[in-house]
Amino acid sequence: MTDHREPLPSVLETIGETPLVRVHDSPDAVPVYAKLESFNPGASIKDRIGKYMLERMLEDGTLEPGGTVIEPTAGNTGIGIAVAAEQLDVDAVFVVPERFSVEKQQLMRALGADVINTPSEDGMGYAIERAHELSEELDGAVVPQQFSNPLNAEAHYATTAPEIDEALDGAVGAVVAGCGTAGTLMGMAEYFRERDAETHVVAVEPAGSAYREFFGEDVDHEEYKTEGIGTHDIETNELFDPDLVDDVHAIPDRKVHEEMARLAREEGQLVASSAAANSIAAKQVARAIADGTIDAPHDAVVTVFADSSERYLSKGVYRSFEEWTG
Ligand code: PMP
């Protein structure tokens, strides 16, 4: 384990070992804990996969030093990859649908990466296609493709989950996490289900997103403001394994907006919309365990707060609901 108090050779060594903090507004008997991922150097959970995927790909020769990675991303993965790429002598190009946060795109560029925008209405599916096209045009280019790359989930199996397990001394009864690629949830679910097959696993998505289609539900696809989680096309979410998931909670933007404000005001937590959705769902699960509706092998419910609200201030996250969604 890296001791962050010792002098470190590079910023890569500061990735992971983030704090795990109690969410106050959860039942005493079934506490909710959130892993604060904005403590990473690129300020999100995606630093973990940026470092992990690039290091593994350089080790097995999929990627050569001096090569290029081209990744379709909403932004945080781009920042995470860009932080690692510079240190590992790799060039980075990101394909980002326009609607994602301007701050994130500026940070990717500041870290030395190229950013290519695709039309918002064409969705992430088109960004993925474009990344593959570009990689064919460029020698030594590789698309890590976080939506289908098992290394994405493996990064959380190898780092996020064991860190939580150690901090709580094996007392994790339920794992709750919003799904974008689903790498976070799948890596954690696999780890904790191996520890105890009864661990309760809940996926979180914004209302209007289609993850529930994996379970045969009909979903009215609607736009949502909650950023970084959800899908409109489950074909692209290749990592998601419904067998590892007990339930999906769909959280409406309005509740997310309220919870972002509450977390800031009452808990000093400047976290973004996906964290607020996770907080709501994790508390729902904690209450269900407390009242006996759900069985879980231990009392603690864990989730992640993937990034900070500072990255979304220009989107009006702390203004009125109408201003945020308008
Ligand atoms: N929250 C935010 C802010 C994100 O950027 C992402 C990744 N898109 C997630 C949550 C979801 O993480 P994952 O891709 O591992 O499902």
UniProtKB/TrEMBL annotation:
Source organism superkingdom: Archaea
UniProt-listed InterPro entries: Cys_Synth/Cystath_Beta-Synth, P-phosphate_BS, TrpB-like_PALP, TrpB-like_PALP_sf
Cofactors: pyridoxal 5'-phosphate
PROSITE patterns documented for this protein: CYS_SYNTHASE (PS00901)
Listed EC numbers: 2.5.1.47
Pfam families per record: PALP
Residues spanning the signal sequence: none
Gene3D superfamilies: 3.40.50.1100
UniProt GO molecular function: cysteine synthase activity
GO biological process, one term: cysteine biosynthetic process from serine
Keywords: Amino-acid biosynthesis, Cysteine biosynthesis, Pyridoxal phosphate, Transferase
CDD domains registered for this protein in UniProt: CBS_like
Occurrences of domain Tryptophan synthase beta chain-like PALP (ranges): 12-304
Family assignment from sequence similarity: Belongs to the cysteine synthase/cystathionine beta-synthase family.
Protein name: Cysteine synthase A
